[in-house]
Amino acid sequence: MKALRITADALTVISVLFVFSFGLQYLLTPGAVAPSMGFAHWPTGEAAEFLSVKGARDLGSAIVLLVLLVIRERRALGWALLATALIPIGDASLILAHGGSAAMAFGVHYATAAGVIVIGLLQLKVAKGAKAVEQG
Description:
Layout: H1 2-28, H2 30-33, H3 50-70, H4 74-84, H5 86-97, H6 102-135
Helix pairs in contact: 1-3, 1-6, 3-4, 4-6, 5-6
């Protein structure tokens, strides 16, 4: 069980760092990072300000996950990871709906969602094991 906990925690930290870094990039250099998302066209001028919303969303999501990990609320962390997987699913679906890159939608966003779901399920399994030991 210890190896599973360490694996789940390491994967959670890695995913949090990735999401946090993307959030910072979208806040600090949105024009430079936006094309890597996969959309066919990007808005310009004032319309491009929505990229800041994506940055704030990513930072907020990462911080919530990190707090749950730090305070060892594994069951809540597992469910939060599963819920957070909806974000890359939504991103990929929007990219496809607007004629963007299918390779980015599937290879990055849907793949990210699958990874986050696996990590969430691992955290739930660790939480269940810890509860069984407590009741033991």
